[in-house]
């Protein structure tokens, strides 16, 4: 039976932080628009900032649907499910905001991700989510699956990019600056990564 929570703490926080993958779901306001569902991984790229706020790193990819939907309406749901141990599914429904490289909050937020080298993954934004509803459900039908490790392919692909070449890569992609549905996506030109202290 599902249960609602007031905050992300204790057992709930421990469960979320122990998972190796989570999923994000967003959609445009237009009822005919494209619903986006994305898997997110890479250990160290997700953080609980406080009892109602979480964040994750948004890396280079072929589109920017999540960013576009958040810029339009902010609605987002994050979901984690147990692939080992006791069955459990946790969803955080909330309001998300993409924080871009030229935002004054960038360096402070990056402090929550000490194990991530931002230069090796084409880091383009930090997604900050304020929880409005937190729920869990049983997850009885979720299969057991084993985590073997993070794939090295993303880092090996984007580690060779400079800020300038990454911007060129984004400019060439059809669904980066503008979403599949024509919404503003990643603001280009891409600002350089801020220097950290």
Report on the architecture of this protein.
This is Pyridoxamine 5'-phosphate oxidase family protein. There is one protein chain. With 197 residues, this protein is α+β, with helices and mostly antiparallel strands. The chain has a single domain, classed as Pnp Oxidase, Chain A, CATH 2.30.110.10. The chain is 19% helix and 28% strand. The chain contains 5 helices and 8 strands; from the N terminus they run βαββββαββαβαα. Strands 1, 2, 3, 4, 5, 6, 7 and 8 form an 8-stranded antiparallel beta sheet that branches. A hairpin with a 7-residue loop joins β6 and β7. It is globular and about 50 Å long. The mean pLDDT is 95.
Q: How are the secondary structure elements laid out?
A:
Blueprint: E1 3-5, H1 10-18, E2 22-26, E3 36-40, E4 46-50, E5 53-58, H2 65-72, E6 75-81, E7 89-100, H3 106-110, E8 125-137, H4 153-158, H5 163-172
Antiparallel strand pairs: 1-8, 2-3, 2-6, 4-5, 5-8, 6-7, 7-8
